[in-house]
Amino acid sequence: MDLASIFDMYLVESKSGQLLIKFEGEKYLCKVHVEHGSALYISLGNKTPDETIAHIDGMRPVEANFIDGMPALKKLDEPLNHKLFSLAGSLHVGTGASESFTSGSGSIYREEAPTPHRYGGLPQENINEE
Q1: Considering the domain boundaries, does residue 8 fall inside one?
Q2: Domain count of the chain?
Q3: How is the beta sheet containing 30-35 ordered, strand by strand?
Q4: Would residue 77 count as lying in a domain?
Q5: Is residue 84 included in any domain, yes or no?
Q6: What kind and span of H or E run contains 43?
Q7: Is residue 80 part of a domain?
Q8: Quick check: pTM over 0.70?
């Protein structure tokens, strides 16, 4: 499990709610407030969004869950998608590129928008690494 795949799955236009990420060795959950695929706020314990992003840089996620429909209580002026995908090492941020690949159940086509919003992903609600 890596951050890029978590963000690919949950920072999509059809998702609104709260993304919870458990990092290895961290006692607090990282909370990402999502509205229509835009990451509006991120926190970890009592850290600010910038402190949280700096803190999780290089950490390994071990579990992710998404709570559909949970409204964002705090919102920043600008979405955090670009910062989060950059942190995750995603090659797709704002590139306008598209990719196609085959999975066990058929082909998946993913087209990247020129904005940091993501389209596509798999309809899973819970990721666990065993």
Answers
A1: yes
A2: 1
A3: 38-44, 30-35, 17-23, 61-68, 126-128
A4: yes
A5: yes
A6: strand 38-44
A7: yes
A8: no
